[in-house]
Amino acid sequence: MNELRPYGRELLEAARRERTPNGAERARVLKALLAAAEHSRLAVEAPAPSKLNAASKIFVLLALAALIAFGVYMAGHVGVPRR
Amino acid sequence: MSAPELPTSRDDAPAGAPSSDGYRTVCENHVDFVWRFAAIRGVDSAALEYLVRKVFSVVHGRINGLEEASELRVSIAGITRNIVRGFLRQIGNRSPLEPVAERGGGGSFDLGPVEALSKKSPGELVDLILTQLSEPEREAFILCEVEGFSLTETAAALHISADTLHIRLTEARRVFNAVSAHLRAELFWKSRDADGKP
């Protein structure tokens, strides 16, 4: 396989140094990365929201069914002219 | 641009999530590489931090702290490559999967006016040379020649065969040598003119 010539190699080395983050950039990014990881860890460890018990679920279902029935009834009767 | 989110639900969290210290070590060891790879690939300096955070948000979800150092390096390189590619396509860079049509076999390259060349930093000159490579050639070249990845590591990070890598790298080096030689000659003649030599 072919190799890079010395001038190209030097240029590439200089570009590498130029494109490496400086101390301040590096510190800022690392701080942000670790803060995001900590935020993620806390979110995972937070207690899960409480769930509805069986009675509450049945109550919610009945309320929804009543609401739908009422909607259907109203759709069938609203706007019908009286005789 | 909003900050990339790390996984926050139990379902998203990796089974063996790394410890804080483990993750800190991974970040410290690889942040320079991710930043530099993105910068040399052409990501604007204003977007570098966003991109680094995005890469590490994926890394955080994938690592479990048990990987070998070289395995981790390859894995991070693959993630970085994918995210940088996606980002550059999103912002509408020219589709770099196609090789540059106008590049020659060692002939002349259009590098712009010599006055402008002499004012460029080494990083900007390398950017200029890399525009002569296709995206896959550029990725292979950066990993091998700038970051010092072995051929095996580079092939693994880019998910390509050793033969494909060989072809891309040979071509990338050929073009890089040709364009950098052309550039050197241009700068030499420019400096000679400036010195007033005949």
Question: What would your notes on this structure say?
Answer:
- The complex is a heterodimer of chains A (83) and B (198).
- Chain A has helices at residues 6-19, 23-45, 54-77.
- Chain A is 73% helix and 0% strand.
- Chain A has one domain.
- Chain A is elongated, with a radius of gyration of 33 Å.
- The longest helix of chain A is centred in the last third of the chain and has 24 residues, at 54-77.
- By secondary structure, chain A is mainly alpha-helical.
- Chain B folds into 2 domains: 20-90; 114-195, Orthogonal Bundle (Arc Repressor Mutant, subunit A), CATH 1.10.10.10.
- Chain B has 198 residues and is an all-alpha fold.
- The model of chain B is unreliable at 7-15 (pLDDT under 50).
- Chain B has helices at residues 20-41, 45-62, 69-90, 114-118, 122-130, 135-146, 151-158, 162-195.
- Chain B is elongated and about 65 Å long.
- Chain B has 8 helices and no strands.
- Helix content of chain B is 66%, strand content 0%.
- Chains A and B meet through helix 1 and helix 2 of A and helix 1, helix 2, helix 5 and helix 8 of B.
